[in-house]
Amino acid sequence: MKNVYDIFKERGFIEQATDENMLRELLAKPITCYIGFDPTARSLHVGSLLPIMSLAHMQREGHRPIALLGSGTCLVGDPSGKDEIRPVMTREEIDSNAEGIQAQMSHFIDFTNGKALMLNNADWLVPLNYIDFLRDIGRHFSVNRMLGAESYRQRLESGLSFLEFNYMLLQAYDFWYLFKNYDCLLQMGGNDQWGNILAGADLTRRIEGKIIHALTFPLITTADGNKMGKTHRGAIWLDPELTSPYEYYQYWINTDDRDVRRFLSYFTFLPMHEIERLSRLKGEDLRKAKDVLAYEATKICHGQDAANKTRSAARQLFGQEVTEDSEAIPTYSMASDELGEGIQAYILFKDSDLCATRSEARRLISQGGAYVNGERIPSFDTRVGPDDIQNNAILLRAGKKKYLRVCIQDS
Fold first, then answer.
1. CA-CA to 149 of 20 to 30 Å: which in 207, 323, 361, 377?
2. Is 401 inside a domain boundary?
């Protein structure tokens, strides 16, 4: 069986590691590892995919992953990568979010029969006696060293609350607790967590006299410099109720040519020789590689059935057909009497959220980028009405790839 460290390295997962040789030797036999996920929203988004995929790779190579839900640390708030303090969340909000994230993680990792664990650090952090915690754990931390950590240093000018200042202690305590109770020898995470993870390794060395390890991943931006998983309409969520499987599929189809190889390596389980073959495609043929990326990423997150439906729907759209099989395409429902004898195109594009504002819709139409049933709309005040209905729907398109079915319902 291949050493998972080498898999991470060839796929570009590794930004920093405590000791490459020691870690590769450690990973030659099954170990327990963990990554923490703070439940600050009801769903994780594409920006969390690299850590999730790393846990999946660990499991596929015989290791036991722990997905740690940070309901406890979420009560404090992680200052890493943030310009200002996060709003304080209630325990009820955090616990509700944690339930949704647990369901999403199960698509990537098999939690049956102890093959992986999903834990919640609120179980051991919330009952802590604060004074005892400071005496037993806080004494091992140097304030000077903490202020040298990137996550704290970048916040000093804008302001760092004392509540947030405790985050490093709590995350370090998590690593020690998981080592002590689950023999966890490796924590992984984004590179902005490097200081926090090292603090946990150092705490364990001080308390137990044992060496445990850290590994971090690159913080991903797209080729054009944007943050991974962000679009003009917001985040790309893993929850199908927040981002439909079709929209998820389309996100990957629209990958920049320069990102195709990297994203195939990060977000699919395809063997590297197949990724290299797909990455060598040029011009229009490169769309085949994007189609594979979109299909594989959607299959992992939403299942094969959803991936089949979304791919079929996307291919139908390029043929300009609206059929019963197109149900995976995002929809906007409208009553027939609301449509009436017709609605001006720019109003319909705004009301259906294809455009953020009416002025944006006018601009799109005047520039020739808006379509009804595959036909370019000649002017912004062109009316879209009953004559445009096909199979109880009207197909709208904004730009080259953004589609929407307006489903007409009897009043």
1. 207
2. yes
